[in-house]
Amino acid sequence: MNDRFQDIRDGVRALCAQFPDAYFRKVDEARGYPDEFVDALTKAGWLAALIPQEYGGSGLGLAEASIIMEEINRCGGNSGACHGQMYNMGTLLRHGSEAQKRKYLPGIATGALRLQSMAVTEPTTGTDTTKLKTSAQRKGDRYVVNGQKVWISRVQHSDLMILLARTTPFAEVKRKSDGMSIFIVDLHHTIGKGLVVRPIANMVNHETNELFFDSLEIPAENLLGEEGKGFKYILDGLNAERTLIAAECIGDGYWFIDRAAKYANERIVFDRPIGKNQGVQFPLAEAYIEIEAANLMRFRACELFDSHLQCGAEANMAKYLAAKASWEAANACLQTHGGFGFASEYDVERKFRETRLYQVAPISTNLILSYIAEHVLGLPRSF
Ligand SMILES: Cc1cc2nc3c(=O)[nH]c(=O)nc-3n(C[C@H](O)[C@H](O)[C@H](O)COP(=O)(O)OP(=O)(O)OC[C@H]3O[C@@H](n4cnc5c(N)ncnc54)[C@H](O)[C@@H]3O)c2cc1C
Q1: 58: Cβ below 6 Å to ligand 1?
Q2: Nearest residue (CA) to ligand 1, atom 28
Q3: CB–CB of 157/114 below 8 Å?
Q4: What is the DSSP string of 334-355?
Q5: Residue 101 has what pLDDT?
Q6: Fold: same for 6-110 and 117-228
Q7: Cis peptide before 34, with omega less than 30 degrees from 0?
Q8: DSSP H or E run through 273
């Protein structure tokens, strides 16, 4: 069915058609990075959708940006390789000075500068972000950073990284969310000069790393916004990120259903297509219903965000519903394929691994439930 985004859908689909299943399968098998695909997306301007026109982007809304992410996943690709380039710049756009925006955004829009990484998570504190231990101490015209991060994605395919660190010790702040700041880190000037990057082998072909900071010096001018307000700035960006990831899950969900329905129509066992059995049909019908419902919440979140209205609850609910629906669809698709679901050449097992991530990152399902319980239902805080 066509919708008002059909032009964007057609454009992204045409680009994705140049990168068939075999391309992504090969990249996955080699644990490589889809350089050619990301270059093509960048050249076509799709990753600069959210950058205002005055800084060289196309100034589109979140709804349009989410269609781009959805279509990549719906065509069999994995936006996780490059989605950071679309939304990490939001922190800079909202909280950077005019000089910082002029310095970085036009380069990010053309792809000459890649801002694909955002370093928040730490190994010893996990989801309890306000307890993070990485510190940045002001010394004259520099900040000196010490500490450790984990699971920081796309660092090896990025020129810049957003870093969240404590500038005032936890013991000295009134509220636990105070005293953290964000910096823009030039990776070319820091890796090997106080920053060590160690890749983490993982279940998905997702480039992610441990980072070790040992007296890393960052120019004070790389502080974004006001010192001490970094946690709030990071939170400001999460609604866009969650909604875009919801759209990726929806793209995955439709991919799984399309593939499963096709296979169920073609595969003959007991002299009839397996799709004739209601035991095969119903899980697919159920997953489809759930994807459609998640899709409505995704568009609700986009509508509120693009109207500059509060959308924390809707963005979180969209992410929750979409990640759950894509996972149900993945399971149903794999089951429909029987043994062949496990064969790499069908791509089901690859997409199955890719979509599973979104129940955990960038926010785990429990933390979304906790947000809704406390912020929407007014239940007491549990942490
Ligand atoms: C492939 C990948 C890429 C990632 N990329 C990035 C990145 O680029 N940048 C970045 O900063 N981070 C990144 N992350 C980290 C990701 O955001 C975290 O893994 C995630 O937020 C969960 O944190 P954790 O792993 O420390 O889990 P933990 O905080 O240790 O939690 C473990 C489990 O316990 C549950 N739990 C914890 N506390 C509670 C509670 N109070 N109530 C109920 N349940 C609870 C959680 O929901 C989770 O299921 C990435 C992770 C992965 C796997």
Answers
A1: no
A2: 126
A3: yes
A4: HHHTGGGGGSGGGSHHHHHHHH
A5: 98
A6: no
A7: no
A8: strand 272-273
Ligand 1, atom 13, lies closest to the CA of 151
pLDDT (0 to 100) of residue 2: 76
DSSP bridge pairs for 197: 211
> Residue ranges per domain, the chain?
6-110, 117-228, 232-376
* CATH fold for domain 6-110: Butyryl-Coa Dehydrogenase, subunit A; domain 1 (1.10.540)
Report pTM.
Answer: 0.97
- Look up residue 337 and give its two tokens: 């394929």
354 as an active site residue: the answer is: no
Nearest CA to ligand 1 atom 17: 362
Task: Decide whether any atom of ligand 1 lies within 6 Å of the 119 Cβ.
Answer: yes
- Give the nearest ligand 1 atom to 119 CA: 11
Ligand 1, from 151, 234, 320: best to mutate by most atoms within 8 Å of Cβ? 151
Q: What value, to the nearest 5°, has the Cα angle with vertex 361 and ends 173 and 157? A: 95
For the chain, the distance separating the N- and C-terminal CA atoms, rounded to the nearest angstrom, is 45
Q: How far apart are CA 376 and CA 316, in angstroms?
A: 11
Spatial separation of the C-alpha atoms in residues 141 and 326, rounded to whole Å: 48
Q: 168 vs 129, 130, 223, CA distance in Å?
A: 15, 12, 14
Structure tokens at 46: 């799709």
Provide the CATH topology of domain 117-228.
Answer: Butyryl-CoA Dehydrogenase, subunit A; domain 2 (2.40.110)
CA-nearest residue for atom 26, ligand 1, is 126
| Atom nearest to 200 CA in ligand 1 | 1
CATH top class, domain 232-376: mainly alpha
Tokens of 322: 């979409």
E strand intervals along 97-255 = 117-119, 135-139, 142-153, 160-166, 180-186, 195-199, 208-219, 223-224
pLDDT mean values, one per 10 residues, the chain (383 residues): 91 98 97 98 98 98 98 98 97 97 98 98 97 98 98 98 98 97 98 98 97 98 98 95 98 98 98 98 98 98 97 98 98 98 98 97 96 98 93
Q: Which is catalytic among the residues 64, 70, 241, 290?
A: 241
